[in-house]
Amino acid sequence: MRKELILESGALDHSAILTRVSEDARLRNMYRFAKAAFNVTGQAVRQVRHGSTASAEFHSKYGNGLMVSGAVFCTAVWAYVLTQTGITWNLSPVGKVMPKEWREAEEE
Question: Which CDD domains match (predicted)?
Fold first, then answer.
C-alpha cells in the first residue's frame, strides 16, 4: 500500500509520491547499469585470460624493425616541423632584447 502525504489544505501531495518513485527507479537503473558494467569488464578479463591472438614470435620477428622505423618516422616528422613550417617557437630573448635604463623612484 502506498503512503500518501496529505497537506494542511487536505489535498494530496503528489510530488512526494513522484519523487519517491523516481528515486526508486533511479536506484534500480543504477543497479542495472553497475551490473552491466561489471559484466562487460568480466567478459573482457575472461577474453584476455584465454590468450591473445598475437603469437610470441611476432615480437622477436618484427619488434626491432618496428621500433627503428618508428624512431626514424618520429625524427623525420619533427625535423620537418622544426625546419620547414615557419613556426615561431618563442625561444629565449637573451641577447635580442635591450633592457630599459634604470629609473629612480621619484621622492616627494
Answer: Cyt_c_Oxidase_VIIb
